[in-house]
Design brief:
Chain lengths: ~260, ~500, ~325
């Protein structure tokens, strides 16, 4: 067991992410304000002792609103990572060890889905039920499972040919044992990296859709939508635009750092 | 310092080169940005862009109070107790291809327009004929007062015969206006050039371009950076910032367009007029007009603006009284539950509101109303869709509340629009919905044939009063159009009926 | 032989993709909420003109009452003859509209990639060769840039170059100056990652035994680099450009929307809004086909650079 490496990028990624999570979930408890309550007589206020991050163009409290938006992004990222990892890994192992037709069918499916850039696919899905968090979740997961699938399949194939697996098989161990004993340990270390990038991508996609007005709808706080909404005020209230920008950048950065490798 | 000198020099050289226009350059082109696309060449669908850019013209025009003015017809008379309109065409009008305008062409154009979804739909026309080369006669089966305003609507603008192909499709925009098409790329780019043989005031500028800018933020930036000379439909949020810039004039114009909530009066929660009144009283119109529209005086609880005086009730002031609203709803049996929502017979007061993103302020106003009704205990779910969801929701009955920006000056006489909106039993796509008021319906129908101004006003006031007290629609504010004009231009004028940009009156400073 | 197999595989993929994408967008579009006739009428006649009357006319004219299946088969049949139909909104042939948009998108994408290469390759090589503070600086910048969504980079570029400095137009098209900001935005978001890839590969080559040997042989570092380095570095870098194509296309969608650049991405987003089914199908299909074709080009480039390499897929 080695100690915590304070110089590693992963440490810093985890630290930033933890701080953001802490803020997102604790901030609404600390403040008596509500994220949707407007006060049209005090719009675009600078931060003060009651409104710690100022107010937006409806006079809503930014401290709580930003926390809400972060919660939403974190929730979307967590759900997408879990779902797509589960589907991708399961199907990946199935494709690598199952019958040849299954492999071919799954391969065909990924080819077709991959032919359409992910964002375009998510855009079309989002158009079916505009403003729906769950539709975005389904669409993003549908795009993201493929990455897990491809990596899992490649690793599992390699492992399946190894002497250790061959002998386990000869000894009559079941599929579940093979997965637990051989495949999973080989796949698991790769998953952290994919998951961290996947989380960053899910967050970015939701924000991008908010930016082209097909994402989450008001009054729900969402980072991408906040950026477009605050942009007209950039000259009058630059701090207002800066808040969602910085939050989004930090969130994505923390995921990238957590992935351990730089930019790839 | 050198740049203006140089460009002035370039312009001078080009002017010497002869009467044929030089190619459009940033110096000789007025660049216009607006939100609206032109999806086809057909005037019945995108004619508003072509009349605004002054390529096409209509038989009649209206002034900024809605009174009729001569257009391509220099005189008109109403005969036969309102059942026939006779129009005399102006002499010496040429289409851009050199064809002279005559009454046969005009009659053929109007007949064509009547067969399309144009403003002529619903007008009781029995015949449109040319009685001689300059006289056009429109015969009606019954009198129709707003016909003059219909003839000023873009969908009745005149094209040259050569604009059509063998299948009667429009293939070129050949009109009579002070500008002719130089280049057109459907759906977002249009460049027009001065038409020197125009019958009226020829333009002072050589070229004008029209570009569609979908995003409100992008349009603001275009204005700010001087990339566009005239930008229409500015987001009110950015107006204070733009006003501080020395190179821009921000022109504020009142439009005969109102922001209003369309209510389903057949809905169990909204059927009682007291419920609708309570919802209206709970809206802080001044707050919305000040903080969101940046135009405090635009707040209003009447549908039509004061300058349409027949239809505007004098001496009323928009009321904001959440307490009175709570009382009214309590009379109807609504009580607050533990979650602070109103409840009656175990059901919470929950409504769905739809609105559309084409006009930037609609979303913001919807968000504000959502919160103001929440204070009252009414739960409002806002969804932003396409504008088409409103007529669709009206016709299948699924619509509950819609926030709309309704143009009562689409034809300059509001009567035409009001008949569409309130004149039939189920109401209108953009008007009342299942509002049972037979009196208003019969009054409206009678007004169409009313020629006495005093009687007209009396009945109009009665209709306005009924709409005001029973609130089939809840007006929020008048629509204020903010336009930025670069200070290198002078002579800009805004048409509240949005029929023309008056480009031929512009000149370089 | 191997190259031919590769091309055949890509061709089959292309067909599968055309069919798959077409079907998928078709099903999705049929499931779109709201009455299609109303939406088309709204686009055609404007907000003030859409009403039940206009919708009824649209419905009749376009035969929207046709059943889903027969419309689908008809569309597939037309597709086989490369007839994508007419836009429901403008009535113009979709193919013409697509060509017009494709030109703009390609111009943006290629310019963006070119600028990206001009930024990423020298930066990656320099940071690998000199290392030290230069490397740390590019790493920090790349990491920061990579954490920003492309539309945020675009917004920041607009604020800086168009508004504060007023050097460049904010949005629109028609002149070379209009291309600069969108292309730069795309290039920055691409270069953020690819300069690190160039860096990694260059470092690998610079420390490889054959490279040191070349210098011992008497070649200057520059000569050694040209003779032995370029090819070894370019194979993985070109392959990586293939991986990045998705970033290019997704970036194009966002950037076109931000800068009102009349390309396919902007067209697609707008067509979804207006429910212009033939145009959505056409645009999505073009994006899918473009994606496969560009991938094939990357395959060919890798093959040309290093014929020893096996099937890159």
């Amino acid at each position: 067991m080695k100690g915590i490496d304070f110089t590693s990028t992963r440490f810093w990624g985890a630290l930033i992410l933890l701080t953001l999570c802490l803020y997102a979930f604790a901030a609404p408890i600390l403040s008596s304000q509500d994220s949707a309550t407007q006060d049209l007589s005090s719009i675009l206020r600078l931060p003060d002792s009651t409104r710690w991050l100022g107010t937006d163009h409806f006079g809503r409290d930014m401290w709580v609103r930003l926390a809400d938006a972060l919660q939403l992004s974190l929730l979307m990222a967590a759900l997408c990572v879990l779902t797509s990892a589960l589907i991708g890994v399961t199907l990946g192992i199935l494709a690598a060890t199952g019958p040849a037709w299954a492999d071919r069918v799954l391969d065909g499916m990924t080819t077709v889905i991959l032919a359409l850039p992910g964002l375009v696919l998510v855009l079309i899905f989002a158009a079916i039920l505009p403003g729906s968090f769950w539709m975005l979740y389904v669409a993003i997961s549908l795009v993201q499972w493929i990455e897990y699938f491809r990596v899992t399949r490649a690793i599992t194939r390699q492992v399946a040919r190894s002497p250790a697996v061959q002998s386990s098989r000869l000894m009559g161990f079941g599929a579940l044992y093979l997965v637990r004993r051989h495949y999973w340990p080989a796949i698991a270390p790769q998953l952290t990296t994919i998951a961290a990038f996947g989380a960053a991508n899910a967050i970015l996609m939701m924000a991008s859709l908010g930016f082209v007005y097909v994402g989450i709808q008001p009054p729900l706080a969402e980072l991408g939508l906040m950026i477009v909404e605050h942009f007209p005020y950039y000259a009058d209230a630059p701090w207002l635009l800066a808040q969602p920008l910085i939050a989004l950048a930090l969130l994505v950065l923390s995921c990238h750092l957590l992935a351990g490798r730089t930019a790839r | 310092m050198l740049k203006p000198l140089l460009s002035a020099g370039v312009v001078a050289v080009l002017a010497l080169a002869g009467t044929a226009h030089a190619e459009p350059t940033p110096q000789n082109t007025v660049k216009i940005q607006a939100a609206f696309e032109f999806s086809s060449l057909d005037p019945s669908s995108s004619g508003y862009v072509y009349t605004r850019m002054q390529i096409l013209e209509t038989l009649l025009n209206v002034d900024d109070r809605g009174a009729l003015l001569p257009g391509l017809a220099e005189a008109w008379s109403v005969e036969d107790g309102g059942k026939a309109w006779q129009l005399t065409l102006r002499e010496g009008v040429l289409f851009h291809d050199g064809t002279p305008l005559n009454a046969q062409i005009a009659a053929a154009e109007l007949n064509r327009a009547a067969a399309k979804p144009s403003a002529l739909q619903g007008v009781p026309i029995s015949a449109i004929v040319a009685t001689d080369a300059r006289t056009l006669r429109i015969e009606l089966s019954e009198p129709y007062r707003p016909l003059g305003a219909v003839l000023a609507h873009y969908s009745t603008a005149l094209l040259a015969p050569s604009a059509y192909d063998a299948n009667q499709q429009v293939t070129a925009l050949i009109g009579t206006g002070p500008f002719a098409v130089h280049e057109i790329t459907v759906p977002h780019k249009l460049v027009v050039e001065r038409f020197d043989a125009y019958w009226g005031r020829t333009a002072g500028i050589e070229y004008a371009s029209y570009l569609t800018g979908h995003r409100a933020e992008a349009r603001v930036l275009q204005a700010r950076s001087g990339q566009a000379d005239i930008v229409f439909g500015l987001d009110p949020a950015s107006v204070p910032m733009l006003k501080r810039l020395p190179n821009l004039d921000i022109v504020r114009s009142d439009l005969p367009r109102s922001l209003a909530l369309k209510l389903n009066a057949g809905h169990p929660y909204l059927a009682d007029a007291r419920a609708r009144e309570a919802l209206s009283l709970a809206i802080n119109r001044t707050g919305i007009a000040t903080a969101i529209l940046h135009a405090p005086e635009a707040a209003s609880d009447q549908l039509l603006p004061s300058y349409m005086s027949d239809w505007h009730l004098p001496n009323r002031k928009a009321q904001f009284s959440p307490d009175r609203a709570t009382e009214l709803l309590a009379e109807l049996g609504w009580r607050k539950n533990s979650e602070r929502w109103l409840e009656r017979d175990g059901k919470t007061f929950e409504l769905n509101l739809i609105t559309y993103a084409d006009r930037p302020e609609l979303t913001s106003v919807a968000t504000a109303i959502q919160d103001q009704w929440k204070q009252l205990g009414v739960k409002l779910n806002v969804s932003i869709t396409n504008s088409s969801a409103i007529p669709a929701g009206h016709s299948d009955g699924s619509l509950e509340v819609a926030l709309i920006a309704r143009n009562y000056g689409v034809i300059a006489d509001p009567l035409g629009v009001l008949i569409k909106d309130f004149g039939s039993e189920r109401g209108g796509d953009w008007g009342s919905m299942d509002w049972a008021n037979a009196q208003v319906r019969s009054d409206l129908t009678r007004l169409v044939a009313e020629n006495d101004p005093g009687l007209y006003r009396r009945q109009a006031q009665r209709i306005a009063e009924a709409i005001y007290t029973e609130r089939p629609l809840i007006p929020i504010a008048y629509y204020v159009q903010q336009t930025s004009v670069n200070s290198r231009l002078t002579g800009f004028r805004f048409d509240p009926y949005e029929r023309s940009y008056f480009l031929n009156e512009l000149s370089w400073r | 032989m191997m190259l031919r197999d590769l091309l055949i595989k890509r061709l089959l993929q292309l067909l599968a993709v055309a069919w798959g994408v077409g079907t998928l967008t078709y099903i999705l579009m049929r499931a779109l909420p709201g009455d299609m006739a109303y939406r088309i009428a709204a686009s055609r006649y404007g907000i003030d003109g859409v009403d039940s009357n206009a919708a009824a006319m649209v419905r009749e004219e376009l035969g929207l009452d046709q059943s889903g299946w027969s419309a689908y088969w008809q569309w597939l049949g037309d597709l086989m003859q490369w007839n994508l139909g007419n836009s429901l909104v403008s009535g113009l042939p979709v193919v013409d509209t697509l060509w017009h948009m494709l030109g703009h998108s390609l111009l943006l994408a290629l310019t963006g990639m070119l600028i990206a290469a001009l930024i990423a390759i020298p930066l990656g090589l320099a940071s690998a060769y000199w290392g030290g503070w230069l490397n740390r600086l590019t790493l920090t910048l790349s990491t920061a840039m990579h954490a920003l969504p492309v539309f945020v980079i675009g917004l920041l570029a607009v604020v800086l170059f168009a508004l504060e400095l007023a050097w460049l137009p904010v949005a629109g098209f028609g002149s070379a100056a209009h291309l600069v900001l969108p292309a730069l935005t795309l290039a920055l978001s691409l270069a953020a990652i690819s300069n690190r890839v160039v860096h990694t590969e260059a470092q690998r080559v610079f420390s490889a035994p054959f490279f040191e040997f070349a210098q011992i042989k008497g070649l200057s570092p520059w000569q050694a680099f040209l003779r032995h380095g370029v090819r070894n570095i370019s194979v993985p870098v070109v392959a990586f450009f293939g991986v990045q194509l998705i970033t290019v296309i997704e970036g194009v969608v966002m950037i076109e929307s931000l800068f009102s650049w009349p390309g396919i991405g902007h067209g697609l987003a707008h067509a979804i809004f207006a429910r212009d089914i033939p145009l959505i199908q056409g645009a999505a299909l073009t994006m899918g086909v473009l994606f496969v074709v560009l991938n094939t080009l990357v395959d060919l480039a890798c093959h040309a650079l290093d014929p020893r390499a096996g099937d890159p897929a």
